[in-house]
């Protein structure tokens, strides 16, 4: 009994100490939001996408700012697979002149552009005739710099313009997943404010804003009902200038919006994606644009990151009429 009592007191002390540590060191909360230090799988060589079964993918590096290099993958449509073998970056860039549309994919927190569920999605999109361009934000993977919301958005904007310069007027879609949906709406809001919206915005497992997501995240369960939870934990996120306010951004976006969400998602709860859709459906800036919400039932087991397994995805993303009939 004395030993159990000692263990209990230690656990209680840690439980009480953590909120104060987070409050005094808000950078800890920022690390938990980004999780850029979690690199899974760890031993992947990002310079060799072919090791992940992407034999029609080129690895390259872009320079959005001085002293910041970010790692990028460009996967060409599967129809170009044979031609892509052994080709260099110049050849890959030349393929942007083909008639195939492009998806700029913005991944979520943790891991890298080489995460397995991300790689599987690239393969699906490539098989449907898309170019897929994805990258690791500064501070992720082999990209230099430190993570921040503004830095992630700046990187996305830079890559968007890099792609746009090479494809001209061909369709360019923005796809964000999880935390990447916050980056995506930041990016698209910026583009729409400048009168240059993308052809469509696709949000997979999105949330409304980072405070609501943090409150709903399973990691917060043990503290959610603690008096002062917002002050201890959520204000620490705001102190790092992290907002990812997709709900606010929806009032500035003026392009078709498609939201995909699995009902059994425990990381970003389904009700947050539904709430964001309701906001988008009532947005004045989206009046006249197609706004669609596609739920995936619990029975399918897609959870947070397996929507790419849906056999309905080809129909949803039929590229030859995506803007007209799907979005």
TrEMBL record:
Gene3D superfamilies: alpha/beta hydrolase
Enzyme Commission numbers on file: 3.1.1.23
Keyword GTP-binding: no
Protein purpose: Lysophosphatidylserine (LPS) lipase that mediates the hydrolysis of lysophosphatidylserine, a class of signaling lipids that regulates immunological and neurological processes. Represents a major lysophosphatidylserine lipase in the brain, thereby playing a key role in the central nervous system. Also able to hydrolyze oxidized phosphatidylserine; oxidized phosphatidylserine is produced in response to severe inflammatory stress and constitutes a proapoptotic 'eat me' signal.
Family: Belongs to the serine esterase family.
Organism: Scleropages formosus
GO molecular function per UniProt: monoacylglycerol lipase activity; phosphatidylcholine lysophospholipase activity
Keyword terms: Endoplasmic reticulum, Glycoprotein, Hydrolase, Lipid metabolism, Membrane, Transmembrane, Transmembrane helix
GO BP annotations, alphabetical order: monoacylglycerol catabolic process; phosphatidylserine catabolic process
Any one annotated GO CC term: endoplasmic reticulum membrane
Catalytic activity, reaction form: Hydrolyzes glycerol monoesters of long-chain fatty acids
Residue ranges annotated for the AB hydrolase-1 domain, each copy included: 101-190
Protein name per UniProt: Lysophosphatidylserine lipase ABHD12
Segments crossing the lipid bilayer: 7-24
Keyword flag Transcription regulation: no
Cellular compartments annotated: Endoplasmic reticulum membrane
Membrane topology: Single-pass membrane protein
